[in-house]
Amino acid sequence: MAEMHTPYSSLKKLLFFLNGLVGMSGVLLIGLGTWVNGGSALTRVLGLSSAYLLHIGYLCLAMGCITVLLGFAGWYGATKENRGILLFCFLSLVVIVLVEITVATVILAFFPIVQDMAFEHILMTLRKNYRGYNEPDDYSTEWNSAMAKLRCCGVNNYTDFSGSSFEMTSGHTYPRSCCKSIRTAACDGRNESRDVIHQEGCFLKLMRITKIQSFTLSGGSLGAVAIQLPGILTTLLLFAKLG
To answer: Which residue windows are transmembrane per the record (predicted)?
Structure first.
């Protein structure tokens, strides 16, 4: 039996394909959000300087899930030639696109500000709140993890601990997490040899990670916009022709 063709068969077939791309853009956003939130363990020591990325990551997860559902809804609306569903998908995707453009703009605008303002705040917070290698508080644990994984010490270098709360309570000039090997006898909190402790600070390494996350999120958001725009325009076109 021959396939029945409506006056809009070709347009509907195109929209089926484009709705598939819309769904894929949702998967892209979900992947970006998951990646950023998964990598936040190291940059969490930056405090408010990296918190905006964590929130944007959650926003990407939410938008991604909604976009995938809109892709299915758009496919269903095209199949049934339902103007109400098509209008809902069109308006929802326009909102999603506006949010994505805003996210990309905010990230690109905010990152230089974060980089300029973060250093002094992070250094002051470290000197005041860091307690030591085996301390159970979250702040110390996060810094110990960051210094061990990034192979760095302090914000600028190991001298950041001089005169800090940590030095006053422990009598050590640096924590064990600064050591290249915490199991050696030379890792005693006083031996500052290049062979014993990491000489480089963590700030630049943390900012490199944050920069990669920022620009990947921004680029991914704009990429999702580029994928979604043809579907939005085709949805509007089919909606108008069905009127």
So the answer is: 14-36, 56-78, 85-114, 215-240
Diameter of the chain measured on Cα atoms:
88
Rg of the Cα atoms in the chain: 25
**pLDDT, tens digit, for every residue of 228-240?**
999 999 998 888 8
Question: What are all long-range contacts of 97-102, with beta carbons under 8 Å and residues at least 24 apart?
Answer: 97/225, 97/228, 97/229, 97/232, 99/59, 99/63, 100/29, 100/63, 100/221, 100/222, 100/224, 100/225, 101/221, 101/222, 101/225
Residue 222 CA to residue 37 CA, distance in Å, equals 19
Q: Which residue has the tokens 């929130």?
A: 55
Instruction: List the beta bridge partners of residue 197.
Output: 179
Superfamily of domain 103-228: Tetraspanin (1.10.1450.10)
What does the domain layout of the chain look like in residue ranges? 103-228
- Three-class DSSP category at 184: coil
Give pLDDT tens digits for 71-111. Answer: 999 999 888 889 999 999 999 999 999 999 998 888 888 77
189: left (phi over 0), alpha (psi -120 to 50) or beta: left
